[in-house]
Amino acid sequence: MSQVTRDELALDPLWVARRLLGCELRSTGPRGEVGVRLVEVEAYRGLDDPASHCYRGQTERNAVMFGPAGHLYVYFVYGMHFCINVVCLTDGVPGAVLLRAGEITTGAELARSRRPAVRKDTQLASGPARLAGVLGITREHNGVDLTDPESPVRLYNGTPVGEDDIRSGPRVGVAAAMDLPWRTWVDGSSAVSSYRRGGRRRIQARA
């Protein structure tokens, strides 16, 4: 498979989100490689998106989101989970797509060992924390270049998902702009996560 290029990701996150469905993300480490086919993603813009980490400007934490495109933005949430995002747009213009769910394509045994409490393989990467977990992605992967063939985490083109098989709806669990239909998923995939509406009690922003 060919890798996704930086130019293909240097676009509006809403467009990139649909483009990422069906793509394959692979992570290689000392224990082997795990790959997932992306089936659910969530778009986040920057300074015009109150649910984004970049809404109030650049910080040390969110600097990767300010470009260039094609890098991985990793953050820790709720004091227990990592979430992973594909950076979009161009230098100085923040935006990213949160990777929410995937179907295991490579390294199922390793994926199971990383999520031993999950009973069904279809649920191994169902949800952003599980997705990061089965891929073995942690804070040390923040900023890696997904378009580099030598990168430990790489993004590949997959079989495109037809428009008739794509659904969209509100983002999950955000405290602001919660009704924007910026979550996109593959219809019929059993790996797609459950919807949970956000609200003011849930103050943790996403990408």
- The residue fraction in helices comes out at 10-25%
Report mean pLDDT, rounded to a whole number. Answer: 91
Total count of strands: 8
Beta-strand percent range: 25-35%
By secondary-structure content and strand pairing, the structural class works out as alpha+beta
Overall 3D form: globular
The CA-CA distance between the termini, in Å, is 27 Å
Q: How many DSSP H or I helices? A: 4
Largest sheet: 8 strands, antiparallel
Strand-and-helix sequence, N→C?
A: HHEEEEEHHEEE
Poorly predicted sequence stretches spanning 5 or more consecutive residues: 201-205
Q: What is the alpha-carbon Rg in Å?
A: 15 Å
Defining traits:
single chain, 207 residues, alpha+beta, 8-stranded antiparallel β-sheet, 4 helices, 8 strands, globular, disordered C terminus
Report on the structure:
By secondary structure, the protein is an alpha+beta fold. It is built from four helices and eight strands, in the order ααβββββααβββ. Strands 1, 2, 3, 4, 5, 6, 7 and 8 form an eight-stranded antiparallel β-sheet that branches. The longest helix has 8 residues, at 13-20. It is globular, with a radius of gyration of 15 Å. The protein starts with 5 loop residues before the first helix and ends in a 21-residue tail after the last strand. The relative contact order is 0.24. The model is unreliable at 201-205 (pLDDT under 50).
